[in-house]
Amino acid sequence: MHATRRTLLAGTAAATAGLLVGRRPARAAQKTILIGMQNDRTGPTQIVGNILGPAPHHYIELINKNGGLDGYRIEAPETDTQYQVPPAVEEYEHAKQMDAVSIMLYGTPQTEALAPRLDSDHIPGTCPGFGP
């Protein structure tokens, strides 16, 4: 397996594992776990986002196909943040409002802008290139 894919899958696994130690409860009524997922499908680093982007979706499909995480189905709608901070902050706030238990960030400026919020909101997050 290509090293970049291994890194992304490891980051996805770390984010999923963060669900188990996160302080935010899963949405029990729906038996789902929501993960906020940011990516760059357009913008200056879109070539990376379009290559790496399918990996977490495939991994989540595999988890859900095998019964989910302790019976909870994982949902991770993706938002194209275009490698820009404002849409990343907007998506973060939306995911937080929807009780996301983890956030998969994308990009250095977005990660630097959102790291303090993740910390103060006690939401685990990860980013390719940064890790958990």
Describe the overall structure:
This protein has 132 residues and is an alpha/beta fold. It has 5 helices and 5 strands, in the order H-E-H-H-E-E-H-E-H-E. Strands 1, 2, 3, 4 and 5 form a 5-stranded parallel sheet that branches. Strand 4, helix 5 and strand 5 form a beta-alpha-beta unit.
Can you describe this structure in just a few lines?
With 132 residues, this protein is an alpha/beta fold.
N-to-C series of helices and strands: HEHHEEHEHE
What is the overall number of helices? 5
Mean pLDDT: 84
Q: Are there runs of 5+ residues with pLDDT below 50, and where?
A: 1-10, 19-23
**Global shape:** globular
Cα radius of gyration in angstroms: 14 Å
Strand content: 5-15%
Give me the oligomer status: single chain
How many individual β-strands? 5
Content-based structural category:
alpha/beta
Please report the distance between the alpha carbons of the first and last residues: 21 Å
How does the major sheet shape up? 5 strands, parallel
Query: What percentage of residues falls in helices of 4 or more residues?
Result: 40-55%
Keywords:
alpha/beta, 5 strands, 14% strand, globular
List the helices and strands and how they pair.
Layout: H1 3-21, E1 32-39, H2 46-52, H3 54-65, E2 73-75, E3 78-80, H4 85-97, E4 102-104, H5 108-121, E5 125-126
Parallel strand pairs: 1-2, 1-3, 1-4, 4-5
Helix pairs in contact: 4-5
